[in-house]
Amino acid sequence: MKGKIIVTGGCGYIGSHTVVSLIEDGYEVVVFDNLSNSKELILDRIREITGIRPTFEKIDLADESQAKEAYRKHSNTDAIINFAAYKAVGESVKEPIMYYRNNMFSLLNTLQGQIDNNIKNIIFSSSATVYGEPDSLPITEKNETKRPFSPYGNTKKVAEEILEDLTKVNSGFSAISLRYFNPIGAHGSGLIGEFPSGVPNNLLPYVTQCAAGVLDELKVFGNDYPTKDGTPIRDYIHVVDLAEAHVIAVNRLLNDKNKSNFEVFNLGTGIGYTVLDVIDTFESVTGINLNYSMAERRDGDVAVLYAATDLARDELGWEARYGLKDMISSAWKWEQDLRTSLNRL
Ligand code: UD1
Quick check: is 152 catalytic? Predict the structure, then answer.
């Protein structure tokens, strides 16, 4: 074994893919999850893919005593990857206290667990939302961070600031914050993927559920943006590429290759696609015509976001391997397999 890693939120979408990549790279993995937005069945799926079912602790990390106990039990850990958080942008606008309480308490209890047990390394799951409306494109890590539109986004920004403060006073402590652009896609096996509870907020799950007949119609939120077809541009990134970046970041910390105690990296492809590009690609990859129409802009959406990928390439030696067609075909395979297995239940 290369070392022991705690993955908080390891039953979730990006967490489960990262657990697979860590196991495949030779790490022992312990998953902490309260299953608030995921299912324990995912651990069996991880075993189907890797041959190993990670150790599981069902705990609510926002609860101080549960977190303390769990980190004490696994004090011989080399690094933590922190995914455990609520992530629905619209819900966070309506329920700010719930979002701040869950996302911040979970992080603070995790950091306290690290300090108490001398666990020196953490990888934090952040988001391009910390850039707000960018002043220049592509977005580099030097772009100014801004107050995000949503409480969800602000939990990411504040969390990064907490990590930065902590690494300043605690020189033995290292953190890497990974700022994802728009994660989509699923594992090639079709066994794990994104499973939003209720009506999805994000574009790709909405598209695949429309195509599967679960939802009737896709609304395109705004076609008067300053882009080639009027719809917003995003940098979609395959979740399997993201998972691999986390393993590289863990290796970097455990091998003392980080250049400072607090580092941030963008994770994107560097290529921007409009909403209509995504719809066209979905239709050509699957042969299915989507039922969609134009609608009003959605509050808080920015026109164009895509990453500068140089820093991740030069420092981490990481570049996205998959293109939009791969992302879409894997998401569609996952959606179809999911519907088949839900029908069987
Ligand atoms: C959002 C969050 C981001 C978060 C990411 C992944 C904001 C502003 N953005 O990104 O922080 O990390 O989700 O969870 O907080 N669209 C439609 N119809 C739909 C759904 C989406 O037209 O039914 C459009 C949106 O207007 C947008 C694009 O599709 O232009 C992508 O939307 P979405 O998948 O929700 O991601 P973001 O809003 O970019």
Answer: yes
Rg (CA), the chain: 19
- Determine the residue type at 93: V
The mean predicted confidence, pLDDT, of the chain is 97
Residues recorded for the chain: 345
Ligand 1 pocket, mutate which of 234, 278, 282, 290 (most atoms under 8 A from CB): 234
Atom 25, ligand 1: residue with shortest CA distance:
221
Q: How far is the CA of 343 from the centre of ligand 1 (A)?
A: 29
Each as own residue / partner, the long-range contacts of residues 136-145 (CB below 8 Å, 24 or more positions apart, any chain) are: 137/304, 137/306, 138/270, 138/306, 138/307, 138/308, 138/309, 139/266, 139/305, 139/306, 139/307, 139/308, 140/266, 140/308, 140/310, 140/311, 141/179, 141/264, 141/265, 141/266, 141/308, 141/311
One-letter identity of residue 45: R
Per-residue model confidence as pLDDT tens digits over 227-263? 999 999 999 999 999 999 999 999 999 999 999 999 9
10 Å CB burial of residue 218 (0-12, 13-18, 19+) is buried
Which residues sit with their C-beta closer than 6 Å to ligand 1?
87, 89, 127, 129, 149-150, 153, 182, 201-203, 206, 218-221, 232, 234, 275, 298, 300-301
Q: Domains of the chain (ranges plus CATH)?
A: 4-185+237-268 (3.40.50.720)
